Amino acid sequence: MDGGMSTMDEIFEPGPGRERDFRDALGRFATGVTIVTTQTEDGPIAITANSFASLSLDPPLVLWSPAKASSRFKPFAEAQHFAIHVIATDQAALCGEVAKDARRFRPGDLTENENGVPLIESALAHFECAREAVHDGGDHVIVVGRVQRVRMREGEPLLFLQGRYGAFQAFD
To answer: Is pTM beyond 0.85 here?
Structure first.
């Protein structure tokens, strides 16, 4: 590849009227898929998120970014404790269900930690967090969590690219 522009390249300035194009450009970046859970007065609540990242090893910090326009925003922005679950390829259906229904869990789907945070034990990994900070981030907030406990297992991660779920294929 020469790294030059092809006839298919498009250059634009993001802003009013170009939101969909900007989102499509961001969608060129493959991400993992997570489900974030917390406890509310009405029971467990969940949200799918691909805006997850490691932040610091010392102290152990992670971050994720819920959208302010989400009907689920307030419980997650205010949560003192939450868990971020890295989802496996065989859990794609669960992601779709949680995206549609924040309370889609059936009896037996979840356990709880000592802080009452709902945990998806079958996830590839989960990070049990205490809220460290919340920062404004435009139409999202950046939630920083201090990781208190981690659980992980072997398996293949679910990936998200251009609005679709998929799997990782390694080059040997």
So the answer is: yes
